[in-house]
Amino acid sequence: MNVYLIVIIASLVASWLLGLLSDLLTSRAMRPEPPSDFADVFDPATYARSQEYARASMRFSCVTETFNTATIIVLILAGAFNWLDLAVRSPALSPIPTGLAYIGSLALASALMSMPFEAYHTFVLENRFGFNTTTLRTFLLDRLKGVLLTSVLGGVLAAGVLFFFHEAGALAWLWCWGFAVAATLILTYVAPTWILPLFNKFTPMEAGELRTAIEEYARKNGFELSGIFVMDGSKRSTKGNAFFTGLGKRRRIALFDTLIKEMTTEEIVAVLAHEVGHAKLGHIRKRLVTGIAKTGLIFWLMSLFLNSRGLFDAFGMEHMSVYAGLIFFFLLYTPISMILSVLSNLSSRRHEFQADAFASKTTDSGGAAMISALKKLSAQNLSNLTPHPLTVWLEYGHPPVIDRVRALRAPAPAP
């Protein structure tokens, strides 16, 4: 049997099995009573509901991952990738339009297959637990906008990559790397102004106690903000959140209206302080550099396999092409992607602890407001308080909230 086919199918199955094992262990790790640290925000009914939500989410994840894994394997073994290749070749277009048609057809098919699962998650699962506020119109418009954005932005990126791999010879991967990094930086810079507003309304925060407190905190800590905005998160969900967008002088903070509704001024400032900590401690820069390096690694590895006849034989392909090779490489890349994801999550969890500590040191409450905010968010979002370590290791970019609270309560190390 083809060695590439063995590696790809084994990787897909291994990833699926790891997910199932992770969910099983997390389900068994659940306890009937909330941890004592959270007894003040999780009454018995709320805690039972959070566990029910976790189990329902894991069952949903199991079904979707099983479907996705089985679908990919069936398509590979049935020769569907070769059938599609012959279909897009029939008009006899040049390689780049043909490649865009091939990649676009697969992306569209993936979006259509995932839509029933997304609809179930939004209108059944999230609705059942009181989170969903999305209307059918908003749901459909979100998907339509997503398809259009992906077609335009993804099409430009894919066309550039195809062009360089066709025209740039042995150094094509370097040109692709530079092009992809430039595109990512540009999108990050313009997203707050041109892209995010397509999905949500961002309203400048009105003058008042909260805005004054945020601006005063930013001033004391030498952190420049180009704007403080309230995002209509309640348009889709009752869950709360906050985040920074943009780069440099276009950096701004967005607070969900659901977060503002549920938290005190002191708690919101603590959440902001955590995000400021990421910037002040260099986490954002480190993540950016790591992401750039990862992108370079991907393109270099890709260049090694794009002309491998064995890789195309694994998919039953009659013809070799750059555009099909891109798709096949990402399936072959699965085990490396898993390893890098685990390492990335490990680094991210470390950064979250550090940002929490920064918030504790730079706010007047000395960590009390951050603890209160974390606990409120966990109750509001029905977070699972006791995930199994394997689940944390595989999936969590943030530490479990109980670990964050206990770290904030721990005595500071001696200087």
Automatic annotation (TrEMBL):
Q: Does the keyword RNA-binding apply?
A: no
Q: Where is the signal peptide?
A: none
- Write out the entry's keywords from A to Z: Hydrolase, Membrane, Metal-binding, Metalloprotease, Protease, Transmembrane, Transmembrane helix, Zinc
Residue ranges occupied by any Peptidase M48 domain in the UniProt entry: 205-411
Question: Could you tell me which Pfam families the record lists for this protein?
Answer: Peptidase_M48, Peptidase_M48_N
Q: Which domain of life is it from?
A: Bacteria
Q: Which residues form the CAAX prenyl protease 1 N-terminal domain?
A: 31-201
| Known cofactor(s) | Zn(2+)
What does the UniProt cofactor note say? Binds 1 zinc ion per subunit.
Kindly give the InterPro entries that the UniProt entry links to this protein.
CAXX_Prtase_1, Peptidase_M48, Peptidase_M48_N
**Where are the bilayer-spanning segments?**
6-25, 60-81, 101-125, 146-166, 172-196, 288-308, 320-343
Gene3D superfamilies reported for this sequence? Metalloproteases ('zincins'), catalytic domain
Q: Does the keyword Glycosyltransferase apply?
A: no
Q: Which family does it belong to?
A: Belongs to the peptidase M48 family.
The protein in question is named: Peptidase M48
